[in-house]
Amino acid sequence: MKKPLRLVGEICFYLVIFAILFVYLFPLLWQLSTSLKTMDEVFRGFSLIPKTPLWENYTTALRDFNVGRFLLNTILVAGLITLGQVISCSMAGYAFAKLRFPGRDFIFFLYLGTMMIPATVTLIPSYVIILELGWIDSLQGLIVPFVFGNAFGTFLIRQFLQGVPRDLEEAAEIDGAGYFVIWSRIMIPMAKPALATLAVMTLVSQWNSLVWPLIVTQADKWKVLSVGLAAFRLFRTIQWNTMMAAVVMATLPMIIILFLAQRFFIQGIQFSGLNR
Amino acid sequence: MSKKSVVLFVLLALVFVSGTAGAEKVTLRYMFWDQNQQEAYAASIDEFMKQNPDIEVVMELAEWGDYWTKLTTGMAARNLPDVFWGHAAYFSAFVARGALLDLKPLIERDNIDTSIYYQSLLDFWSYEGAQYGLAKDWDTIAFFYNKDLFDEAGVPYPTDDWSWNPQDGGEFVRILQQLTFDDQGRNALHPDFDEKRIVQYGLGDLAGSNMQAGWLNFVWMNGGTGVLDKPYGSKLVMNEPECIEVLQFWSDLVNKYHVAPPPEATVAGGSPWDLFTAEKFAVVPQGSWMLTAGRSIEGFSWDVVGMPWGPKGRYSAFNGLAHNIYAHTPHKEEAWRLLKWLEGYESQKIVAQYGCVFPAIESLVDVFLDAYAGRDPENVAVYTEMAENTGIWPMHVNWNEIFDIIQRELDMMLQGFVDAQTAVANIEMQVSHLLQ
Amino acid sequence: MPPVILGGVIVARKMSPKRKREAVAGYLFITPNLLGFLIFQLVPIVVAILLAFTEWDLINDPIWVGFANYRNLLKEPVFHLSVKKTLYFVVINVPVQSMLALLIAILLNRSIRFQNLIRTLFIVPWVSMAVAVGLTWTWIYNSQFGLLNEILTRVGLDKIPWLAHPDWALISVIVVNIWQFLGFHIIVFLAGLQMIPREVEEAAIVDGATPLTRFFKVTLPLISPVLFYDLIVNVIGTFQAFDLPYAMTGGGPGSATRVYNLYLYQKGFQFLRMGEASAMAVMLFIIIGITTAFFFRVVGRRVNYDLT
After folding, report:
1. CATH superfamily ID and name for B26-138+319-360
2. Spatial distance between the Cα atoms of B315 and B308, rounded to a whole number of angstroms
């Protein structure tokens, strides 16, 4: 008698959870749905499933609204920054965790200290630096300020590498390995989960970032998706279906990566949310 | 230095010198906002490039809304186009920051005859003894109206002596009411008129941002001073009763008489102009610069009528554009040559022939009017009449910021969320620190 | 920490060759990272503090004006408005988000199937671009054709001008903000809940505590450090809200959604007042610092650190 009751309870539980999820994610489903509708259906149809999916909205967005160019720039900028951060933070994280050098703890303390300072504070001076370098409207202007990594990434890798037992390094040292070899052959493979976490966190934040690209790019040629899409609001006539197609193209890549690398996202959130 | 390296150095130097000496063309960036004038100016610039083979001009079009953002951020990036269109409303912000080149020394050096231009147009571009532009064109405001919609509604066309007052709207509102219909075909005077289901509006384009072709003219026609007490004045005069009365009337057009739509952030049907050409608006206030756009109207006939006579007569913004040169352009001489050409007689004649804007050179006005012979609008000359009376055009070094606030607050008023008194009080409170 | 730093310096005096090599390697390894940190973090912080004392439009030379920027800002009504809007944003966003997230986290805190799938689905909005999400919601909020108003009409209610009305716009934006970052906090709280030892809960059950008292007497005190830390991070983040208001309303209608960072951006890059914008940035830092300190003093005391 007890078992069937529990089963019903279980089913109810999952129904509740998935109902919550359905409502929670409905805006995104609506976005997808609108992106496949005709303008006529956009204004009249309130069904989630478009009558006949209109894939042309996507080609229109790519072609007429420059989304193709924006997408390319976004991939390039977010990709290069992520690559740079992973390399730079793994190097620095290794040094902070494992190597002894004068001033190490002081510098690290400085890193942690600035983590609390809002990004807005550095915005204008960073802009002036890029301006003086003549890097407005350029790939360098978009990438260089972030490519060397940041305090968060270094902190994350350091914490992880501190947990790596010393004997591994010592064994390598006895074999005559230099620091570079230890870093590339031991530390990087050991730190893979942390590096993957750093990579996905950086990728998402750079892919979605708005403020910096907004101020350093003016020409359409250099705009990234966030900046290009934000300009849609200013259009007097809005083609909601095309706009939603552009929006889907901006969000879908990160959602796919989320599903491919779930574990690392969860770890990244836990690390930044629990600070350990 | 070894022999080898000397040879290498000389070779490199040669390559470098020959590379630059090959009569390289100077490229000038030319930025403008009005697509309707693109064709005419492309023709003029082609002619210029023919006569000046050492200069290449690249035309960059940015829509009005985007244009000023681009130029301001361009200023911040120290990367402005070499030559660009200026507008009286934004001029002072550029001048105050030293972004524009003073043309006075060049005008004197080259003995430019400035007497061919309307004096008032030249005055727009002078500031503290310097001259930052000549004159490209001038414009005034009148109303475009769709004759077919008047016919369908059985309303006689507005005549040049039509009138208006801010209390009950007068003839102006009466006409607009007869041109506003709900989906049952009832006009705004009908007792069962349903203002929630309007399919055609009498009037369009009432946004707070539409100062030049919109509310400011009516403020003047009601005896108000305008926005500021004088050009570059430091006193906001929107709290004059004459002004508040007009602003409230402007809001009433939307919220009381229901003859105009509220300026939604996004109008589903399109821009006011799109809606006029789609025959959803019967009447729209338009600057003379829209005449060219009107030429592409198909499917209905239309005409223009002057401003309706208000308690203090009729007024129109009288404005003019000019070409400005970026103060820090590396190609000052070339930019000046281009500017001289564009504001000169020959170029203005080319542009006037396209009928896109009234030329700033008085003797060419007839060339412009000839472009409209035998086509709509019949009454095009009304725009020249509208040039007779104008009020004080607001100019201020912080105009960008001031106007940002004004248009935001007026839009809220037009949506019916606040009355004119409150909107003006809100504006006053927010702009006070900008006016000092 | 300070004794450790001192220790490092003392050791530096007399180093063996091996230690020297290690030190050189250490510096080399941190060089790229440190350069980026110095040029784009540390130097800008100092420069921002200095710029805040100047009047500068990026074109002409900066003029030293002392504390004038701060004085002017404190007198300026639009600045007051932006501070008010931001405080409102924080005060609504943070508690609502935390409570909702905690509720859902508690619901999910048991051994369930599809644990990973469910957690992942909850962070989908979080990985989505704020601008894109903002535009999607702008469409849903659209007064005439938006989904929300269609639903309202169908159940016989009046349409609401969500983003167009000054009284509705800010709360509408806040709802989107709550929605977008909810998943993040769920994951954090879930991790916190899972750190509570099973025995503690089971002991409470044995004692015959009702679920409600169990929550207030056992669960809440035990995850209070996690909650507290999350709250602070959330407050700091919310003070800096920019993307959603920028993409959805541009600060309008009127100044209804002109939050702090949006106004700062406008001051700097639309109106070219770099000095005032820098002063705003410094003041934001101070505001955040005061708020955090306040939290530590008032709430921090009650946080139970012993049991984590």
Report:
1. Periplasmic binding protein-like II (3.40.190.10)
2. 9
